[in-house]
Amino acid sequence: MVVISQSPVMNQFSYRFIKRAFDIIISFTVLLILLPLFIVIGLLIKITSRGPILHRYQMVGCEGKIFEGQKFRSMIINAHEIRDSLKEKNEMKGPAFKIKDDPRITKLGSFIRRYSLDEFPQLWNVLKGDMSIVGPRPPGPYEVAEFKEWHYKKLTVKPGITSTWVINNKPTNFDEWVKLDIWYINHWSLLTDFSIILKTIPIVIMGRNH
Fold this sequence. Notes:
Layout: H1 13-33, H2 35-48, E1 54-60, E2 66-72, H3 79-83, H4 107-114, H5 122-128, E3 132-134, H6 141-144, E4 160-162, H7 174-186, H8 190-205
Parallel strand pairs: 3-4
Antiparallel strand pairs: 1-2
Helix pairs in contact: 1-5
């Protein structure tokens, strides 16, 4: 059993208050502004492929808490069942699973992934308090099952929609990914969050998140 102890800085009341207020304001504002776009995306998903509009899945959050994540569905409905047959094509070194030109992704799914539109429903997770706007990328239970002991450091804070991983060309080595998360945890400040968000915006607009 691994005991997860929070970072002294991240555990301070001032940090938690500022971070939470920031998350609520940003997530509520963006959800309100982009509601018409979400409706259009939902209709297109329903029209172009069989299955639900949202993909719901288990994620591991702060201190190992399991919560239900949600994204706009970008894959065929039996994508999880097919994943085992694609393991040898995995481009990530470590527990995470990512492959280029994933055959499970629908045509519309490829587009919304390129511009990160599939991830916007996670703003609801931020509003609920399971996630933050900025933080380590949330792992799934199957990834955590393969963690090395030092990987658990990334579970000492809330996971985020964007992260240091996104703005650093998405390294394919999981250890490097976790090192970026730990750097964020050890160097957090409101300025750091703003910096990561500002660097994420052009990545999303230019469709480089693919």
